[in-house]
Design brief:
The protein is mainly alpha-helical and 159 residues long. The protein is built from 6 helices and 3 strands, in the order ααβααααββ. Strands 1-3-2 form a 3-stranded antiparallel β-sheet. It starts with a helix and ends in a 20-residue tail after the last strand.
């Protein structure tokens, strides 16, 4: 059993690194977004993400990071800093949840009682306009080891 857990952890770390490498050109905020997930349970509501004390740290990190204006999450972070209100926070959360769904790191339950959607099985993209405060995310099991969820034991630093 311990060998299987170790192999699963190594696989998870490899998937984490592969997602970062594959998407860093399009979404430079990917490493920070993935590591932010480690602060939460495997399933979390968007409202919980938007009211998290750790969200401010993420917003400031992304505000000060990529200045290319190409990363929509970094753009949303800059908007949060320039217009700090609840609406800009929830829009920021919707933006980064949409990106994490698109890259395959999370699944999304759009409304209570609906099934969890995954980009590789269902719709490849869910726009932020489809998300509400009642929506929730589920971190894909392939990320659990790398994000120290469940039986994972690695706590990675930002790449």
């Amino acid at each position: 059993a311990s060998i299987i857990r170790e192999v699963e952890r190594e696989y998870s770390i490899g998937r984490f690194d592969a997602l970062v490498d594959e998407w860093k050109g399009t979404f430079p905020s990917t490493p920070a977004l993935l590591l932010f997930l480690a602060e939460f349970e495997q399933s979390t509501g968007l409202a919980d993400l938007a009211t998290s004390n750790k969200l401010d740290d993420l917003i400031l990190k992304l505000h000060d990071g990529d200045k290319s204006n190409l990363d929509p999450v970094s753009q949303a972070a800059r908007h949060c800093v320039s217009s700090p209100d609840d609406l800009s926070r929830i829009e920021f959360v919707k933006e980064f949840v949409s990106v994490l769904y698109r890259i395959g790191a999370i699944g999304i339950r759009l409304e209570k009682g609906s099934k969890i959607l995954y980009s590789h099985l269902d719709m490849p993209i869910i726009g932020k306009s489809s998300l509400t405060a009642a929506s929730e995310i589920k971190v894909h099991p392939m990320m659990w080891g790398a994000l120290n969820m469940g039986k994972g034991i690695l706590n990675k630093e930002a790449a």
